[in-house]
Amino acid sequence: MTDHENTLSAVQGLPNDEVSARLILEHLFEDLPEAVIIGSLDRRLVMVNAAATRLFRCSKADLTGQPSSTIYASEADFIEQGEKRFNVSASARRDRYVARYRRYDGSVFTGETIGGPINDGHGRATLFMAIVRDVTDKLASDSVLEQLYAISSNAELSFEQSRHAILQLGCEYFGMPLGVVSRIEDRRYEVLDAVDAHDAVQAGQVYDARETHCFEIVSRRGPYAVDRSTHPEICDHPAYQRFGIASYIGAPLYVQGEFVGAIAFSSSESTTEFTDHHLKLVSMFGQWLSHEMDRDAALRELRQAHEQLQRVATQDELTGLGNRRELTDRIRRELDRGRRHGRSVGVALFDFDHFKQINDRYGHAAGDAALQLFARQASNQLRSSDMLGRWGGEEFLLVLPEASAKTAARVVERLLEAVRSADFRAGGYRVALSASAGLTLTDCHEDIDLILSRADKALYEAKRAGRDRFVLLEDDAPTQTQARNAK
Prior knowledge:
Elements: H1 2-10, H2 18-29, E1 35-39, E2 45-48, H3 50-56, H4 60-63, H5 75-84, E3 97-102, E4 108-119, E5 125-134, H6 136-152, H7 159-174, E6 178-185, E7 188-196, E8 206-208, H8 214-220, E9 224-227, H9 238-243, E10 247-255, E11 258-267, H10 276-314, H11 324-341, E12 345-352, H12 355-362, H13 364-379, E13 387-392, E14 395-401, H14 405-420, E15 425-426, E16 429-430, E17 435-442, H15 448-464, E18 470-472, E19 483-484
Parallel strand pairs: 17-18
Antiparallel strand pairs: 1-2, 1-5, 3-4, 4-5, 6-7, 6-11, 7-8, 9-10, 10-11, 12-14, 12-17, 13-14, 15-16, 18-19
């Protein structure tokens, strides 16, 4: 309003008689784009310009001669401004203020105003003047923007909670009982989230997109609004005939630049004549939610990348089992737990028999398939507390928490039998498989390297004894007394 502040200064020093002053002011302000209101010293309206008639939705005759109190929505505002600005003792003020005004049809708006007395050549107040601009939409937009920011910046809200809060805010602002976030793919319309005063629309419901007003958004890739009061033809639309939607406003949603759906608000009753402001505001809702969806997608990608890195770091790519690093960490954790609770832990090292011959004769793909088969077959034989992982090459390591020698031996026997009885085929032939294993137990009070060394020594003894068997080595006693044939 800087230009209008200058205008208020420029009209000081008008002729002493009110009639001449009014004529000058009427000529000066008639074509200004914003409402100008001139009042007498007794605070009656004596002149308004064309913009004022548009703002207050009436003719000049409807306003002139009326007490200025008639244009205020609140008597308190009328009294307050009279004390501050519109009295003969007030000085010309250039500060803006906001007041609520009432139009001729009874509707209320918020006006940003600058005003005060107009003085004659002797410095005496002869008239009052106010320049008013309707800022209802701007203030509403600012308020919505502040609330959207508050929602998105609330770290305690999950993405789903933020999305729902944005829907609730839109329903409140547009005065609609139903708000929906949808995913639209071709003709498929799926409800992702809904705020429904009647609880009829819920997440997961699927419709033909052509039966919804959102289909207009698909073709427009922009905001769309329609109300029965101004577009009675919507009564022929499937959305009205099937769902009874008489008022609708919505905007597109984008994730990483790709159209994914819409945010929309609707009612079974006519609500308002939608303006460009409404379209801009619903676009703001769409852009804000799109930003939230973008951020959620980025976070999910980040989590997936982190999980992938975790898998790469701890999981064997070929078999899907834990790798050497994960197995080592697991053994350490079990040893700590075993020491606390006085329990033993079994560790078994498995190695395929004649694995090089499988690779040489049938190819490395067949060798890989044999390893994958063992991983699947063996995993089905284990307790949920046990852990089998790939130690390296064709070797696998098994960790058995809280296992006695008898229990551990029984588990190892089952795994060797699973390998032996597996229906493995390569090159069109059934190929017999077998494995050897070295098993040891620990009271959890020894070093991990010593335990693994003993398991490896037991495996060596099993291989030396003829393969297709396991050897249990509980301590450093002679291994031949601990050998057990798995057959």
